[in-house]
Amino acid sequence: MDDALFPLPQDQPGTASAGLPEGAHHLSGFLDLHQQRWLVARFHEWTDGPVPLRAASIRGHQMSVRTVCLGWHWRPYAYSREAVDVNGNRVLPVPDWMVRLGRRALAAVGDPDAGQYTPDTALVNFYEDTARMGMHQDKDERSLAPVVSLSIGNSCTFRLGNTTNRNRPWTDLRLDSGDLFVFGGPARLAYHGVTKVHPGTAPEGCGLATGRINITLRVTGLDG
How many Å apart are CA 190 and CA 184, to the nearest integer? Predict the structure, then answer.
């Protein structure tokens, strides 16, 4: 079924947002409802796997967002194959269909290197309706290959900032269920965060009654 759901890259329907910095792309409607439901089912399988959903702590403060990882386990400022800050178990691998999905996403935003994109980790975040994500850079990876971000469930207000600091200028935009966002090129290290989740906005049939799932595909550049 995953072969049919996420085939090799091809033209993808959706609506792109204008006015974003070079390398940043927002495409609404990238995932249809069937694909969203299927991914929600996989999310439940991952959270029932060897490493449970958990909230990481940064400088002694527990995040309101909970995460399960594939390929490499992320903890603040580091990656490891085993979830050393949870239970020591090795995380599940990145499935082949997820690599195809990442390549399809980059092809949809016109990335000329989409066919070579090979994410080796996925950070899958779950936002309760009160969860937030502070402004930060995705810079724990050695590679600067694009980050592919997919949203399922409730909409959120997403804040895209500059690459220098957490202050203005920034752009606030709404990410809805099924939307794609890509950080690449000059925008790869842009500060970004989620300022609000909007309860009750998940479309009927997406597979998630409450909260928000955010799947982020990355290339770590790590060996082993």
Answer: 9
**Pick from 217, 221, 220: which is nearest to 100 by CA?**
217
Domains of the chain: 22-218 (2.60.120.590)
**Token pair in block for residue 77:** 């400022």
- Please name the helix (run of DSSP H) or strand (run of DSSP E) that holds residue 27, with its range, or none: strand 24-28
Sheet containing strand 180-183, edge to edge, reads 15-16, 24-28, 180-183, 147-153, 212-218, 121-127, 66-70
Residue 188: count of CB within 10 angstroms of its CB = 20
Query: Which has the closest alpha carbon to 181: 169, 165, 193, 170?
Result: 193
- Along the 224 residues of the chain, how does pLDDT read in single tens digits? 466 777 766 555 566 676 899 999 999 999 999 999 999 999 999 999 999 999 999 988 999 999 999 999 999 999 999 999 999 999 999 999 999 999 999 999 999 999 999 999 999 999 999 999 999 999 999 999 999 999 999 999 999 999 999 999 999 999 999 999 999 999 999 999 999 999 999 999 999 999 999 999 999 999 97
